[in-house]
């Protein structure tokens, strides 16, 4: 159990800067999810905390101690990799015990800790098997088990669920969350999947182009995005953006207005703030997504409405409206006004 | 035997099927015939061989000829030459594997100045077979006083660019995450090498061992140059040394017995390691 502090972390590969100064304070036992599109530097950030990547400048502190030059093994961390990185020639048991064996833990204790982790992860029937004889979900569990038996200060997860199928992903997501809160170990979790981020995180860090755009509790980030990028990245379907000049009573200094699809209501043609035409609709049962092309030009809007409401017909002209409170105004730099 | 389905999928049926087999059998016979002749010659007497026509079926001198070859031979007992060959072949094969594993490990997993340069230097030596560098190598070996010694037989042949290259290619297919996982688990580099990389490359090692053992066993020119003492002769060159010079007569039954004996160890190595060997060449078991 530990706190982690990232103090103005920067990273460059040769002349390319990939991370431009990230500050995060992580509390003991907190589950932090770093989310962002590919190439935003989220994995690099995690690997720097793990000690697999050097830090160009800035400081990483684990429990108040600076660990910049400390080898991964001495940082008291455990990492779960995207491809699990299980040792193919070792049995499940040996895989989980390997780190303890190197640390010269007494044999009896190794056996006990491995057995405990196996029980926790329902891996007991598979202890003697080799990784290739396991399914994807089971391998994922072994990778988790390898992290658990170490009883580390910090768990690091590098997109651990991205190789699983959708159903298993949901299940493992719940298990990870449950496990982490039971063990109370500080966790840093990298993903590009916003659903994982929203559901797992105590606080999430939205990264964009090597900068942490926003750090906050998932719902706070969702309802109050600080930048245009965050507003567009978090939430599915994505936030609708429209030029502020086209919106009546737009706040001063705003260059773009963002409105979440669920905040828009469809009205008969000629009413509401803007008008457009229905392009097509996606009826998902519980909800219906209506895609519009706005009369103002090329902008498209997505409207999320209750599945019980009448389906608009493609080609029909409609008006749209939203509450003034639901408007998110951004200036020309993409910052919230 | 698996039953061949009546409606064969791609199975060739009919006359073509038999032709293929006849072709294969003829091929095997053609290749096997000289070996058979050598075996026959090693079981008859000298006079049977030199009086034409040469016999085509084994005689009754098997034990006599083979025990003569093994215990006394012509210049040196064949048993001793077999031992010399075995030591040399094992030394070369194991030494090559050890050195190339370590150098491939260094090249793939460590960043050091001149890494690429070293790799290409190693790669370049592929173009320099023993025969090309034999005179300077002889100078060096002679200078170290290693003529007529096992070290002289083994060390000049012990570095292998081919094996280094092979292991490099294999190591590069091992996911980086594995090395990182080991690092997080606390394995220092040599521990990673020993605990993870080595067990993972065991099929490759086995395949290479077979190839390199045969390479070492079949060395001819180099042992011929540096061993003048018959007790250091290796068997492959020893056979040549058995041929008479001038008017001496050749003891063909013993020479043929020696040939057959020389063939056995590589055959044993190939047959006993066949499964590992094929696995090593075919899959990389990740």
TrEMBL record, chain A:
Q: Does the keyword Lipoprotein apply?
A: no
Listed CDD domains: ABC_MalK_N (cd03301)
Keyword Thylakoid on entry:
no
Could you tell me the keywords of this UniProt record?
Answer: ATP-binding, Cell inner membrane, Cell membrane, Membrane, Nucleotide-binding, Sugar transport, Translocase, Transport
Alphabetized InterPro entries for the sequence: AAA+_ATPase, ABC_transporter-like_ATP-bd, ABC_transporter-like_CS, ABC_transpr_MalK-like, ABC_transpr_MalK/UgpC-like, Mo/tungstate-bd_C_term_dom, NA-bd_OB-fold, P-loop_NTPase
Q: Which GO terms describe its cellular component?
A: ATP-binding cassette (ABC) transporter complex, substrate-binding subunit-containing
Entry GO MF terms: ABC-type transporter activity; ATP binding; ATP hydrolysis activity
Matching Pfam families, A to Z?
ABC_tran, TOBE_2
What does the entry give for GO biological process?
Answer: carbohydrate transport; glycerol-3-phosphate transmembrane transport; glycerophosphodiester transmembrane transport
ABC transporter domain residues: 4-234
Q: Which family does the record claim for this protein? A: Belongs to the ABC transporter superfamily.
Q: Which NCBIfam families match?
A: PRK11650.1
Name assigned to this protein: Carbohydrate ABC transporter ATP-binding protein, CUT1 family
The species is: Litoreibacter ascidiaceicola
TrEMBL record, chain B:
Q: Which NCBIfam families match?
A: PRK10973.1
Keywords, alphabetical: Cell inner membrane, Cell membrane, Membrane, Transmembrane, Transmembrane helix, Transport
Q: Which GO terms describe its biological process?
A: transmembrane transport
The UniProt function text for this chain reads: Part of the ABC transporter complex UgpBAEC involved in sn-glycerol-3-phosphate (G3P) import. Probably responsible for the translocation of the substrate across the membrane.
Q: Where is the ABC transmembrane type-1 domain?
A: 82-273
Q: Which residues cross the membrane?
A: 21-44, 86-110, 117-138, 150-171, 252-271
- Give an example GO cellular component term for this record: plasma membrane
Report the membrane topology from the UniProt record.
Multi-pass membrane protein
Q: Does the keyword Iron-sulfur apply?
A: no
InterPro entries, alphabetically?
A: MetI-like, MetI-like_sf
Q: What subcellular compartments does it reside in?
A: Cell inner membrane; Cell membrane
Q: Which family does it belong to?
A: Belongs to the binding-protein-dependent transport system permease family.
Subunit (UniProt): The complex is composed of two ATP-binding proteins (UgpC), two transmembrane proteins (UgpA and UgpE) and a solute-binding protein (UgpB).
The molecule here is called: sn-glycerol-3-phosphate transport system permease protein UgpE
Q: Which domain of life is it from?
A: Bacteria
């Amino acid at each position: 159990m530990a706190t982690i502090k990232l103090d103005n972390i920067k990273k460059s590969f040769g002349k390319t800067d990939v991370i431009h100064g990230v500050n995060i304070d992580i509390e003991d036992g907190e589950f932090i999810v770093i989310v962002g599109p590919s190439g935003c530097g989220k994995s690099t950030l995690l690997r720097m905390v793990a000690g697999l990547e050097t830090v160009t400048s800035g400081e990483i502190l684990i429990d108040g101690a600076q660990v910049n030059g400390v080898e991964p093994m001495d940082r008291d961390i455990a990492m779960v990799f995207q491809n699990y990185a299980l040792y193919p020639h070792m049995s499940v048991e040996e895989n989980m015990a390997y780190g303890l064996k190197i640390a010269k833990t007494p044999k009896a204790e190794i056996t006990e800790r491995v057995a405990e982790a196996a029980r926790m992860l329902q891996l007991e029937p598979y202890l003697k098997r080799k990784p290739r004889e396991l399914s994807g979900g089971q391998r994922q569990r072994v990778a988790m088990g390898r992290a658990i038996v170490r009883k580390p200060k910090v768990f690091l997860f590098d997109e651990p669920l991205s190789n699983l199928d959708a159903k298993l992903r949901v299940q493992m997501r719940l298990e990870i969350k449950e496990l982490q809160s039971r063990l109370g170990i500080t966790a840093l979790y990298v993903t590009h999947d916003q659903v994982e981020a929203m559901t797992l995180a105590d606080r999430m860090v939205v990264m964009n182009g090597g900068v942490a755009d926003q750090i906050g509790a998932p719902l706070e980030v969702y309802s109050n995005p600080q930048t245009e990028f965050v507003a567009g990245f978090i939430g599915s379907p994505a936030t609708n953006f429209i030029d502020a000049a086209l919106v009546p009573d737009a706040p001063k200094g705003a260059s773009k207005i963002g409105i979440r699809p669920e905040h828009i209501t469809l009205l008969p043609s000629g009413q509401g703030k803007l008008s457009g035409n229905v392009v097509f609709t996606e009826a998902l049962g519980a909800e219906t997504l209506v895609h519009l092309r706005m009369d103002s030009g090329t902008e498209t809007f997505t409207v999320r409405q209750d599945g019980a409401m009448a389906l608009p017909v493609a080609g029909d002209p409609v008006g749209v409206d939203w509450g003034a409170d639901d408007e998110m105004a951004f200036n020309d730099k993409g910052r919230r006004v | 035997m698996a039953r061949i389905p009546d409606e064969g999928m791609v199975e060739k049926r009919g006359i073509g099927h038999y032709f293929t087999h006849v072709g294969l059998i003829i091929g095997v016979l053609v290749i096997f015939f000289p070996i058979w002749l050598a075996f026959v010659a090693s079981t008859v007497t000298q006079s049977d061989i030199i009086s034409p026509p040469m016999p085509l079926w084994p005689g009754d001198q098997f034990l006599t000829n083979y025990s003569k070859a093994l215990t006394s031979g012509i210049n040196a007992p064949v048993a001793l030459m077999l031992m010399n060959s075995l030591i040399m072949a094992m030394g070369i094969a194991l030494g090559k594997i050890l050195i190339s594993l370590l150098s491939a490990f260094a090249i793939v997993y460590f960043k050091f100045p001149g890494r690429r340069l070293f790799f290409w230097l190693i790669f370049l030596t592929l173009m320099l077979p023993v025969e090309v560098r034999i005179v300077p190598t002889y100078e060096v070996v002679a200078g170290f006083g290693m003529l007529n010694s096992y070290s002289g037989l083994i060390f000049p042949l012990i570095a292998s660019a081919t094996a280094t290259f092979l292991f490099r290619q294999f190591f590069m297919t091992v996911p980086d995450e594995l090395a990182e996982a080991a690092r997080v688990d606390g394995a220092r580099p040599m521990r990673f090498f020993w605990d993870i990389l080595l067990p993972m490359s065991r099929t490759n090692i086995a395949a290479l061992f077979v190839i390199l053992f045969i390479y070492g066993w079949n060395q001819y020119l180099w042992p011929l140059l540096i061993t003048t003492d018959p007790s250091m002769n290796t068997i492959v060159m020893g056979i040549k040394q058995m041929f008479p010079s001038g008017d001496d007569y050749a003891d063909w039954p013993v020479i043929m017995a020696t040939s057959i004996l020389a063939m056995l160890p590589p055959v044993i190595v190939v047959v006993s390691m066949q499964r590992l060997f094929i696995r090593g060449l075919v899959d990389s078991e990740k």
